[in-house]
Amino acid sequence: MSSSADTPTAIQQPSSSLAKPRLRAVIVNTNQEGNPVLDYIKNVPWEYGETDADYQVGKTTGVIFLSLKYHRLYPEYIDTRLRQIERKFYLRILICVVDVDDHQQSIKELTRTCIFGKTTMILAWSRQEAGRYIETLKSYENKPPDLIKKRVDDDYFSKLTEAVTAIKSVNKTDAMTLASNIGMFGSVRASLLNKRTVYSIQPISTRSYYRLFSCTRAIQSDSLTAIAVPIHRKSAAAYSTNTTAESTKGSAAIDNNSDVKHSHTGAAIDDPTEHDQDFIAAIPTGPMENPNYHKGTVWFDNIFPFHLGLLDPRTYWVKYYSKRFILHQRWSRLIPPWFPSGAEFQFREAEPNLKEGGLYLKFKYKGGTIEEAIEAIQAHVHSTGIRSIFNFGRINAFEVKGRPWVEDMVFRIPSRRLHVEFHGPDLSVEQLYREFRSFGRIMDITIQPSSIKDLPRFASVEFVNKRSATSARNCIHGELIDGTRVHIGYEKVKSSFSFWNWAISNLRISIPILLAVTAALSYIVFDPLRVFSIVSKLTDRFSFEKYTETAGAMWNGAQSSISALISATGYSSMDRSKIKNVRSTNQGWDERETEAKRLELHYKQAPETLVIVHGPKGSGKSELVRKSLEHHKKKLFIHCEDLVGQPEYVLITRLASQVNFFPSFGFMSQITTFMDAIITATTGAKAGLGTTKETEIRKILDCVTKAVTDLTLDQREARQKVLDELVDKNDEYNHSLSVPEIEYPVIVIDGFLGKENARGHFLYDMMAELTFNCYSQTLVIPTKSVETFILNDATPETALAYVHRRLPELDTKSLWPSIEPLGGRLHDLDLLIQKIHAGLTPTDAFDDILHRSVTELRKIGLNEEADKSKHEWNDVQFWKIVQMLSKFDEVPFDHLVMHPIFKGDTQALSQMERNGLITLIHSHGRPYTIRPGKPIYRSAFTLMTQDTRLVSTMGILTAKQLISDEEKKVRVMEEEMCQLGLLQAHDGISTASFWTGGSNHIQSRMDYLASKLGDSAKKISNWNNEEARYRKELKLIE
């Protein structure tokens, strides 16, 4: 055997376990029947048989035949065929017949395919040449490789030339120059090691010679023995050693510590001469330095943690720790201080394996065997009980018997299951157990079945502990066991029982179990957490503002002190007009103080009634409630306007956010609905996973109810406890113990019925249910006995003070003409201030607001640019209100309802109020008067009545509606008169009327109807005249 003993050589020689009768003929696949190549296979026999290749020319050699013309028609054919024989043959050959002219691109594609498929490609320019190749492969099947090896003569000069020309950039001319100028090989080596000048060769060749001779193990000065040693850097380092002091004839001593540390990854870190006996023949013969030294390697596991993947956060720290571990020689505590008598231990190098969490320690040992040194190290580690700083587990030591392969591939993660490949005869379970058991307990050993012909053959060894598997791989990989070399990798451990597979295959059982577990988890864990979150929202338990009140009070105190100091220094001559303005500002809120105090007093009472804060839009209802709750600690706001009309997911998410319902899992409703649809479509039965939005909202409101109730009951219990203590001590009048008052939670529902016709209006019903269930004060829900707070607009004087405070640069005289018609609506006053700040004069700002109001009234009230089906009033009804309110500040409700245009229907007026066009003033529990929705609307109504075209248009529409309604009445009366006339003309009427007076009653009724017809005719005539007049003003000609 050659000294390299490489892996391909082991693969090309089939093992004895696979030996079969020698094949004497080429086995031809039946798919090659009719191929002209068969006509040219004449020197060897062939026959059709079962084979995966096209031509099987040996036990482990398969040939695929391909024509370039066929390849262009079916380019995917060759990929399929190569995959079919990928694991069937050691040597795979593609014979390609070039039968096209432009073949360059096709050959490039096939070359790439063969490289990736580990296949040898042979080009044949005719089918006869292809047949000769098949014959040659078959005839040379069992021939030794000596026929193609380079022959070297036995004379000394030929051996010298072959040795020195093995170096790159050294040719035969340089070898002849060395031989003629220096002579013997030993002299060349000695002169180079002593750095003497070598004449007539290139400098780069001199360096190459020096590297060669400084790494050669033993070379005699007057003879050349086993000179064919690999000369490249890696192999030279692998063969490095020491030269004995007794070497003669000019041989120079080499440094004792000549080993080279392999810092690169993916390389075998052990010398092939250390543990592989088949490499001994490759060692050069001759005298050696320290022949009693033995080299060995020991593996320490659990030095570092396992590498878990690319994103492992411990990677950088482990790299840093490993460098310090080697630099500070912390490995020395793993080596015993003494060995058996007469033995000498010498450290060579330490190499960490960070991915598998261990350390290789290479050493030299003299005075005993390697096994003795390993046993001493193991006994020392076991007796001292050294543990890892990462997981506090024990560190173990094992002898490295193979040629470990250190790699850093990201997706090859260590596991407790090993994949053991056999390059040689198969190993039995007993042999594998004997080799692997020393590393830890084994769960199972599985060998590839003999029926499977895939190569290489393999076995699986599964350990109980992952550390045992990594130690076995690093110590046995590459070892030669009973003539078989083993290569070891990791396999992913597959559980014999997979819950996921079971759940997928048993949906009828797994889905109910999953739902039950989810419900139990929600009831046990999530519901208490949600109630706690809502209580925290009510009490502002984690509010930043609450904990900054003290700091704010201190800051306000400091500001007051600074202001007092500044006033004392002479700046106290503040403009008295500003102080007056401040006082007027405070007086501007006096109209709200009464309502705010009533609300604060109501909060302290038991929650037996509900509160409605009612008022026109923009009158400051929300601000009043917030101001009354400024010092109330337990409050919760629900804004209906942000919820109604929103999609299901947005509605649930926003409501959960407002009440601090956490965790909400609002997205799960969409997922469960989607899963329910999929299961229904696949199985035909509805799984019932999806939930409606009503169910989700009710779940949130139920948690709110529980949180509010628990909060109130806790306060009651605390108060009752204090009262019980007073009774027990008979000290009811002792004021040292204060009885805590119950602060009932307040729930504010803002924007209730703001979008009654919008999508999601069912939310209002659920909010109403919330008020019945919660033991708290609730505002804005009109269900139980109701206490109503109606907010009116501010007086013109208060409005003027408010605006003047915001615009102190303007005097009250210039503001009053704009403030008086604008009224005291807070929203309109703020809008006026904004426009004045933007650069408009008060008059221009008021005119702009007025015209915007007119546009708003025409758009909403007269149904311009809107869907008229949404409103319950018509244009004529709204125009009648415009006419009435432009003349009077307020109109009696009953007077307007009974007008012929409204016909006693109050629905139109109620909807106008909800849209903010008018305001209904209640008295004694019923509507009493009608006012404009805003004070500015009074001026807007007046401006609308000054528009002659609008007045004419609406006059025509009004006249038409009145005429139409009156004509309907006339038709009804005419029909009744016809019926009465027929009744009067009947024969029986005249006879009966003499005794009963029936004819007089009928006649009186007909006279009444005739008078009413006359009145109706007059009305219709007057309305026709008005319509004609309006048409004349508009110049409309029929």
From TrEMBL:
This is Mitochondrial escape protein 2. Plays a role in maintaining the mitochondrial genome and in controlling the mtDNA escape. Involved in the regulation of mtDNA nucleotide structure and number. May have a dispensable role in early maturation of pre-rRNA. Belongs to the ERCC1/RAD10/SWI10 family. Its main location: mitochondrion. The keyword DNA-binding applies. Residues 249-268 are annotated as: Disordered. Keywords: DNA damage, DNA repair, DNA-binding, Membrane, Mitochondrion, Mitochondrion inner membrane, mRNA processing, Nucleus, RNA-binding, Transit peptide, Transmembrane, Transmembrane helix. Residues 416-493 form the RRM domain. One of its GO terms (biological process) is mRNA processing. It comes from the Eukaryota. It comes from Batrachochytrium dendrobatidis (strain JEL423).
